[in-house]
Specification:
The chain is an alpha/beta fold and about 350 residues long. Strand 5 and strand 6 form a beta hairpin. Bound molecules: thiamine diphosphate and magnesium ion. One of its GO terms (molecular function) is pyruvate dehydrogenase (acetyl-transferring) activity.
């Protein structure tokens, strides 16, 4: 199928579709940095599956592939002191916030040098040094703590912002609504980002909600709410910029639904038997990295050579992280089995 025909078909079925455009204030260097971040996310995720199959990576892992524009377009604008709360699909969020991919890979390998000393795996990575409040295997669970984090910033009088991510499935957790209500009532500096990839494991999201326009939930709480094309990093960047400015100015929360499409299985080996994956064929034409690259070339923002070099750099970084985790890190010793159960105090063995 020709590219343009795909796009015409997509426009009919993907109601969040927007054309690419250059938002005011977004310079070339920032664009190249975001492009690079997306490639690191992509190469990291692509590398993990074969490692998982080879039994080098342990525990579940959920790829963020094709959702990279969401985390990147938003988190790239945060400062180090700002916070993010993440999901079970959180590698990309941490990469965008400046996390250490060597420590991430070591954690996935179950090694002592990993973020959680190899005890937590993919879904439990936290890095307070870059404001990453934590990933969570419990869907929607990051939202209430994120409102707590925003409350802390408000009490301390800083201009720090907290951004919290959750899926279309996670959006249905009761605590998400309670948190939105409190944040709106107290005008807290928090941004709710719903990554609507239209699936919650094997459930089409429209089967479990009466209102498929998820951004409208924010409106119900009096929160300015927007829908973005989850494949259009420029629209996401522009929407997030305004939301971050509002939060820093003490004007309260924003809700952003980034509508996308889950183009792979829910986790590493889910073959998506419950859905027709051919639906995704068209969406690959607008996957965010390809789309941003094409746009930057069309608009003479970057050359193909520059973009290729950025991709190669990302491959090298990820390869180095695998080499580190595989050959330089250590298995936790058996006598450390009970370590890190409590932050301090007596450990009951
Ligand atoms: C509270 C809770 N209920 C159920 C699950 C099982 N579960 C794990 S991932 C998932 C789907 C989440 O879907 P969504 O929030 O849309 O995120 P996505 O995986 O699509 O990124 C579910 C139901 C869980 N981990 N936590
Ligand atoms: Mg989902």
């Amino acid at each position: 199928m020709k590219n343009s025909k795909c796009i015409e078909e997509l426009k009919k079925e993907f109601d969040a579709y927007t054309d690419m455009y250059l938002p005011e204030g977004l310079g070339r260097e920032e664009q190249l940095k975001m492009y690079s971040t997306m490639w690191v996310m992509r190469k990291f995720e692509e590398a993990v599956k074969p490692l998982w199959m080879a039994n080098k990576v342990h525990g579940y892992y959920h790829p963020y592939i094709t959702e990279e524009a969401i985390g990147t377009g938003i988190i790239s604008q945060l400062k180090k002191e700002d916070y993010i709360g993440s999901t079970h699909r959180g590698h990309g969020h941490l990469i965008a916030k400046g996390g250490d991919i060597n420590k991430m890979m070591a954690e996935l390998f179950g090694k002592e040098e990993g973020y959680n000393h190899g005890r937590g795996g993919s879904m439990h990575i936290t890095d307070m040094s870059v404001g990453m409040l934590g990933a969570s295997g419990i869907v929607g669970a990051a939202v209430a703590p994120a409102v707590g984090s925003a409350l802390k910033s408000w009490i301390k009088g800083t201009d720090d912002v907290t951004v919290v991510f959750f899926g279309d499935g996670g959006a249905n957790a009761g605590s998400v609504s309670e948190s939105m209500n409190m944040a709106a009532a107290w005008k807290l500096p928090v941004i709710f980002v719903c990554e609507n990839n239209q699936w919650a494991i094997a459930t089409d999201y429209t089967r479990i909600t009466g209102e498929p326009d998820l951004y409208k939930r924010g409106i119900g709480f009096g929160i300015p709410s927007y829908r973005c094309d989850g494949f259009n990093i420029y629209q996401i960047w522009e929407t997030a910029k305004a939301a971050i400015e509002r939060a820093r100015a003490g004007e309260g929360p924003t809700f952003i639904e980034c509508k996308t499409m889950r183009m792979l299985g829910h986790h590493a080996t889910d073959d998506s038997w419950y859905r027709d994956m051919s639906v995704c064929d068209k969406y690959w034409e607008i996957e965010p990295i390809k789309r941003m690259g094409e746009f930057m070339i069309e608009e003479n923002i970057a050359t193909q050579e520059e973009l290729d070099a950025i991709e190669q750099e990302a491959i090298k970084k990820v390869e180095a992280s695998i080499e580190y985790a595989d050959t330089q890190c250590h298995e936790p010793s058996l006598d450390s089995f009970y370590d890190y159960i409590y932050t301090d105090g007596e450990v009951i063995k």
